[in-house]
Specification:
The protein is α+β, with helices and mostly antiparallel strands and about 210 residues long. Helices cover about 20% and strands about 35% of the residues. The chain folds into 2 domains: about 1-90, ATPase, nucleotide binding domain (Nucleotidyltransferase, domain 5, 2-Layer Sandwich), CATH 3.30.420; about 100-205, no CATH class. The protein has 3 helices and 11 strands; from the N terminus they run E-E-E-H-H-H-E-E-E-E-E-E-E-E.
Amino acid sequence: MLILAFESSCDETAAAVVRDGREVLSDAVASQADMHAVYGGVVPEIASRKHVEAIAALTEKALADAGGLEAEDSLEKEEGLLVRDGALPDFFSQMPEQFTCPDCGAALSVAADGAFSGTLADGTRFSGVFSELEEAGICVYTAAASSVSLEAVPEGTSFRLEEGAAFLIYLPGADVQSLPEAFSGFDGQDTPPCWGVYFPAEEMAFTCSPP
């Protein structure tokens, strides 16, 4: 009997083919150690993304090295399912809770279920829930605001948060060059050292403290 086996650590992905539980026909491993070294430790969201990106190619290699075997099902399709049904439901639980906007002094809090709330410098309070989360690039996601609410809005304020308003969420590992100009302080770095939330309608860039 042939067994296609998978194993992962926090920063390594592996696939192997074993015959009768004893004879290892192939063993393919992908390491992320160099990628995480710049952060001084493993970044969970980057690690989970890289596991998903690596598994299909590793499986093909393990099967080929075991004697030209082929997978019966499309791993490319399964890879998409892993992202939609596996990683994203836990997305906000991996996200930092507290963010600030250095340019305007606003504060933003994000809960593990995607609910968010914040306060502007003028006292305006806003809240809602991030929904319709979709991957938009490497370590970049889009989200829509639902169940939005505004309170204690001073007369004449121009801030608006409407139902369905678009947000961008950036993770460590994103390309700094792809970040909106509202994000600053990342000069000389290839990727941001912290998470970021961008509200395009108001050009507000929220960041958390680097790990």
